[in-house]
Amino acid sequence: MTMKIGIVVFPGSNCDNDLFRAFEKQKLYEVIFLWHKDTDLPKDLDLCAIPGGFSFGDYLRTGAIASKSPIINSIIKFANSGRFVLGICNGFQILCETGLLPGVLLRNKSTKFVCKNQILKVCNSNTHFSKLYNENEEVNFPIAHHDGNYFVNNETKKMIYDNNQIAFKYHKNNPNGSVDNIAGIYSQNHRILGLMPHPERRVTSEIGLDGERLFRSLNV
């Protein structure tokens, strides 16, 4: 069965085409673009994806302005109905700003933009996004961000551990100061995923295929 994917584009998004190609390459999805000023999502949409970039120039705070865009209310209703949502890098920041995911993304501990390949550890292989990975498997995804330092208070951290909401952790080194090396998390129902690394940049044999299974997992 073909799933329908909608990729939301904001002013300043710059990974939307990469994400489009990552989904389209699997030949399992109908992929469309959605504009941030849209007020409604298509009724037959199965997953809403928010790509990386610098929405609205990252002014005020990363993801803060984007989280007030007209389309956001529809995304919140979509997510609360149990549908799938994926946020990568700036998309993760936006999902945290909306409250769909817990925590906040702060300036990297080094205060510098970090751009490199990063080893991650898969922390939960029992979700729609991760079922083609193995628990504790090491994968290599690129990272490229200035504000990827994930922070939650101790009470919230206990909650995400208790609910097995941690998707990925940085492995062997922590590039940004994130609490407990956290690189990506799920919502409590595991149908919303936000992560700072870029799996959509690891879907070709030339540069690596570690990200491809994330996109295939959704329709297996």
Query: Widest sheet: strand order?
Result: 2-1-3-4-11-10-9-6-7
Spatial shape: globular
Query: At CATH's second level, what is the architecture?
Result: 3-Layer(aba) Sandwich
Mean pLDDT: 97
Beta-strand residue percentage? 25-35%
Helix percent band: 10-25%
Number of H/I helices = 5
Please report the total strand number as a whole number. Answer: 11
What's the N-to-C terminus distance? 10 Å
Oligomeric state of the chains present here: single chain
What is the highest CATH level, the class?
Answer: Alpha Beta
The major beta sheet can be summarized as: 9 strands, mixed
When the domains are counted, the total is: 1
Class computed from helices, strands and strand pairing: alpha/beta
CATH topology: Rossmann fold
CATH superfamily: Class I glutamine amidotransferase (GATase) domain
**Poorly predicted residue ranges:** none
Radius of gyration: 16 Å
Note the run of SSEs as H and E: EHEEHEHEEEEHEEEH
